[in-house]
Amino acid sequence: MSTATQHNVLTCYHCGEPCYNEQLLAHQKSFCCAGCKNVYELLQENNLCTYYSLETQPGIAGKQGLSDARYAYLDDADVEARLLDFKNDTISKLTFYIPQMHCSSCIWLLENLYKLNLGITETTVNFMRKEVAITYHHPKVSLREVVALLARIGYEPSITLADTDGKEKSKTDYSLIFKLGVAGFCFGNVMLLAFPEYLSVGKEVQHEYGRFFGYLSLILSLPVFFYSGQGFFNSAWQGIRQRMVNIDLPIALGLLALFVTSLYQIVSNTGAGYLDSFTGLVFFMLIGKYFQQKTYDTLSFDRDYTSYFPVSVTQLKQDGQEESVAVRSLEIGDRIRIRNQELIPADAILLQGNALIDYSFVSGESEPVEKVAGEVIYAGGRQVGERIELEVVKEVSQGYLTQLWNNAVFSKKEETSMESYANTAGKWFIIVTLLVASGALVFWVPRDTSMALKAFTSVLIIACPCALSLSSPFVLGNTLRIFGKHKLFVKNTGVVESLAKVDTLVFDKTGTLTEPSLSELCYTGKKLSALQEMIVKSLLSHSTHPLSQRLFQELEGEVKTVREFKEISGKGLSGEVKGVFVRAGSAAYLGIVPNTADAAQTAVYVSLDGVIMGHYTFQNVYRQGLQEVLKGLKIDRLAVLSGDNAFEKQRLQALLGTAAELNFNQSPVQKLEYIKQLKRQQRHVLMLGDGLNDAGALKQSDVGIALTNSITNFSPSCDAILDASAFAKLSLFIDFSKESMRIILASFGVSLVYNVVGLTLAVQGLFTPIVSAILMPISSISVIVFATLSVRFAAKRAGL
Amino acid sequence: MLIIFLLIGISITVATGFLVAFLWAVRSGQYEDDYTPAVRMLFENEAPDDSKSLKSKI
């Protein structure tokens, strides 16, 4: 017994997992499995034990029983060419995505990879992206060996079909930062040159150097006008061509008025112009744009099935030899072998073995489906249990799942969301501004023509809706940041606006409302004694069927020897334990006709010495925090779309309330249609899902949030990714996005006050350069400060 | 007061230098990853004699 307790205390020196099954020792250190020990020995031999001193137990628990042969497809020149970033006669460069990377030890080991293989010349880690860039001498080491080495030390790179698609890797777009840099530089210098004007002592300086300063500022503001501010003018022009007023139109008009007035004043030597305000405005607005554009580039929101599919599959040749080939080159009639937990890449017919396919990610069914030889297995399922042999009947690109994905209904038309707050406000703004400006013109023309022109341009200049254009990027940008801090990663700021309008919430069931890795064991029937439970457990220990395995883990007791063990695959088990004849399996196997209510459910029936005792069922475990979410929701319509059967209906109804609409056995297309129908009723739909089966619905809804246990894992394309641990905060997120919209309105109000004051001065022609120089930056900055602070404050109050 | 022209000329030249340096730094990807270099610089440099005698087993 003492050894048993010791086992519980010991953890693996490499990965930190408790050493349950076996205890392996090397250099007085204990390891949980041979995999971990091998990695340790490899590192030890090559003097890489710093790995263990940087962080304790940094390793990744080794996966067992995977042979290096599965990387054979990497020898294929075509696959290699698709993966490599660069190649010449001697060196190759490429970048791998390694999701396992998690600590500084990982960085250290990966950057010291050259010590393990002399062919590798350089490795550079980008920790935030979990990427490693590798340079190697390809005569000395092959791509396959590099990948095998990484896999061996626990950092298997994730290579998916999408990587080999040869899609252009999007280069980071620096143009906005360049524009920002140029605008900042010009703003600073123009401001410096305009300084004498702000001060009363500037009179004589102005007299002597005014022209020089003026022309210099003009030169400095040219790059701002032609380069940095280009985006505003382009967007406004496009708006005009489509006969639409967007927020950029008043901005462009204001900027143009500022620049032209300044140009006139400087050239005609009548004044110093407003170039400091002009460059400053462009600079501030670019900051706003930058803030709005800030994205989570480590996350990918637009993934399709190809990032879910593996690159290679084991093909069986005529002579029975296994060979690893690229999935893309699979042809109809090829025979493939799929092992436990591997994905079926193409629609295929089952030839051999007991197929138990887990379609939970594709269809939402929580229980694996049994298939017998001769049945067609659709791509996307995951085999659970023993290895199977299949014959491909359709090419990868022609498969059911792929077809579904390419289905036209799946592609939502990206409506250019011109309906955003700022744009609607901008429309009214420009109408009022133009009215006021022309009013000033009409008033002054009979009295004083030069004053009329001055008042007209002053109105346009002061009314420049910088505050309008600044408030919404800053409010939304800050909201995005706060969401990100609480693990809701939103694709762009437009999503926050949509989220605020949501009035209907649709959940997927499997994996979204329920915890995918957990299920609660439920027993109905005559009570089993401890001894009887032990007998059942002993029987189950011999079966590899996933249901048996799950049940085995839940039951208590020691394992005794089983005699005359028999397993009829897909039906049940029988055997003799301690003189008791036990049978366990499906209802049909034990000759029971279950009640109709139970029929929909997967159950394991047990009989002892021919007497039926009862049955075990697995109940879904709903996510923690579901109650809080439901309580906090201020939404009048709730629905559940499940690909699963209706067995849990009553429990779900009790949980969600009677008003909730529950729909079961929904196919991906049905889910999509349901959302479409809701939208036709003018509903703003928030869909929460997790699997490929929700992909269409997620795209169709106003806001599609993908729930995932690990944000770097595959998730279907969506508007936002929510970490499962933050699920309980869902209602807070919705409330907070509404709060953000109110803050935008409030900052519109602040800018309105400035505009009223400014316009009153402007129409009277009282506008002096000093007032404009002070008022304009102050109004911009105060709006930025107001937006940032109030979002922070609101977040604190909302408990985020 | 001619000196003002000279000073302004110099100040703008220097500022342009900084602008160019900034644009170069952005283009060369120095702002791509602001986490890993901070960790990397803390790694010890090991004695070089060990790496010479390494047994490459792969």
TrEMBL record, chain A:
Membrane disposition: Multi-pass membrane protein
Annotated GO biological process: copper ion homeostasis
SUPFAM superfamilies linked to this entry: Calcium ATPase, transduction domain A, Calcium ATPase, transmembrane domain M, HAD-like, HMA, heavy metal-associated domain
Protein name, per record: HAD family hydrolase
InterPro entries: ATPase-cat-bd (IPR021993), ATPase_P-typ_cyto_dom_N (IPR023299), ATPase_P-typ_P_site (IPR018303), ATPase_P-typ_TM_dom_sf (IPR023298), ATPase_P-typ_transduc_dom_A_sf (IPR008250), ATPase_P-type_domA (IPR059000), HAD-like_sf (IPR036412), HAD_sf (IPR023214)
GO MF annotation: an example: copper ion binding
Keyword check for Hydrolase: yes
Sequence ranges assigned to domain HMA in this UniProt record: 92-158
GO CC terms: plasma membrane
Main localization (coarse): membrane
Family from the record: Belongs to the cation transport ATPase (P-type) (TC 3.A.3) family. Type IB subfamily.
Domain of life where this protein originates: Bacteria
Regions crossing the membrane: 176-195, 215-237, 249-267, 273-291, 428-445, 451-476, 743-767, 773-795
Organism encoding this protein: Pontibacter oryzae
Compartments, as annotated in UniProt: Cell membrane
Automatic annotation (TrEMBL), chain B:
Protein name: Cbb3-type cytochrome oxidase assembly protein CcoS
Keyword Transmembrane: yes
NCBIfam families noted in UniProt: ccoS
Pfam family, one: FixS
InterPro entries named in the record: Cyt_oxidase_maturation_cbb3
Domain of life: Bacteria
Transmembrane segments: 6-26
Keywords carried by this UniProt record: Membrane, Transmembrane, Transmembrane helix
